[in-house]
Every structure is written in structure tokens, then in C-alpha cells.
Amino acid sequence: MIKGEAGVAFIGSGSAQVETVLSNDMLSQMVETSDEWISTRTGIRQRHLASMNESLAELAAQAAQAAIAAANLAPDDIDLIILATSTPDDLFGTACQVQAAIGANRAVAFDLTAACSGFVFGIVTAAQFIRTGTYQNVVVIGADLLSRWVDWQDRTTCVLFGDGAGAVVMQACDRDRLLGFEMHSDGSMNGCLSLAYQPESNALIDGVASQQGTFKTITMNGREVYRFAVSRVPEVLEKTLFHAGLAAEDIDWLILHQANQRILDAVAKRLKLPNDRVVSNMAKHGNTSAASIPIALDEWVRTGNVKPGHKIAISGFGAGLTWGAALLEWGL
Q: Is-catalytic flag, 116?
């Protein structure tokens, strides 16, 4: 940290989930699969799905309100809201709807899109505003409704994804609790996991046409994404630890993007971390993209597992392809 800059503290967490649950057994009534097939390959047993009456903005607002309350702040105290999402209610941005919903009238608000890495990229972005003294209190939200874009007849992808939202409050302080970070992108591998726009020609007048299409459903090369994750995630975590001058054994908790239990196990083995320090809740939630890390963090904070002073390594990885890691110390 450069002299004169502020430090960053992580002082509150929150999350929100929808009530509707789709279990593996229920999925087996829709496509040729089974609870055993899904759970042994992914670790997922159920996922939550938003109904027609539930919006991304609503879930994100609930998570933000819970995080603000946990930080003992009021909405008027918030200077900036960053909403990490790939599934906005409005392609022009949903963060401003969240700002209005929670009454954070002073806050600037914008969306950030980096898929499953979005929450990690979001807190690193927020830290730059805090460290330079621009903003004092920032809410970073990870929220996605991937069920909107799943092909429910494709058993290789429909078993994976769910909906949810999580958030943290970051605050300026005199000692920096963001101990290190590292972020990467590789667009050459974009086709391995994508949710692509599909244009259709819309004739306007003779000789002039515009595009007016929609988005396809999620497509994924599961084998390539797995190989990418088990290689790149340990590497980015090791670099982050190096920047912080710490070793893997200094980590109290490892919270990875909740994509696949086999990935979590492989990364923990590479880092020589015991399983009881690796947070996993995908059995209940599935893959919630940008929401997965903050949901898991909030659950561990509220159950008392995460305590002030604990060092938490987080890593997101996914579409783009993007990946990143951050090492933070919880609390003031």
C-alpha cells in the first residue's frame, strides 16, 4: 500500500436465495439422469430456481440489505454499489435498480460482468476506489439467475446451475485487509463456456437490415473447463499468496467458486490444504456463478465459522475465460 492511501476492511456479509428447489431426483423426471450420476460427478444435490415473480434486482437488494445491516451501517452510508452479474434484468444495467430498492440514495451504482469470476473482480475493483480515498463504504454484490439461460433438455449443463445472490460491505480503514490479489483473462478459450448472442436479420427498407436477435442458452465444454480450472486456480492462488508474503498453511478458509466438488478437491490437494478448511455448499445451491463465493462466505460468517482476523482465500473462475483470486482478512 502506498503511503497516504486508505486500507480496505471487510465488515459485513449478506445473501439471499429463492424458495423453489429443484432436486436431482426431480431433474431425473425431466432428462435422463439420476441423483447418483449428478452428485458423484459434481457434488450437487439440488439448486434454487427463481420464479416468474422474482427478479435479479430483488435478490441482489436483499443480499445488499443484509450485508449493510451486518456492517452496522445505513443505506445512506453507502458510496458505491458494484453488482457482479451476467444475468441482469436490464441489459443497460441492474445495479441502479438495486440502489433505488435499498434506498442508497448517495451511492453510485454500476454492473460488472466477468461471469463466475465476477465477485472477485468486483472486490478488487472496489478496493481501488477505497484505497485512493474516493469512496468510504462500498457494497459488492454477486448475483445471477442462470436458470434463465439453461437448456433444460441438455443434461450436461442443466444439472449444474442455480440462482442466488450474496454481498459484502467493504470500508476504508487504516490497515489494509485485502492482502493480495491476481486476475487473468484468456479470450482464446471463450468458446469453452459461453452464453452467446444469436443475431437475426430484421429487414428495415430495401437493402437495409438490422440485427434483432436474442441470446442462446449456456454451452460448455465440461472437460476443457475442468482442465482449465484445476491448472489455473491453484496457480493464481499461489501467486496471490506470494504477493501477500504468506503460505497456504496461513489460510484459515479457502472459498472457491462452487462449480464442481472435484475441482475443489483437486485445488485443495495441490495447495496441501485439509478438507476441513475448504468451504463447500454446492450440494445445496449448485453453481450460482458470481453469487457462489459471497453466498458461501455469508453462510460461514453467520454460522460463526469465520471469525474476525481469519484469513480467507477466494478464487473465481469461468466464462471469458476469466479467473482470479484474492486474499482477505475478515473484520476491522
A: yes
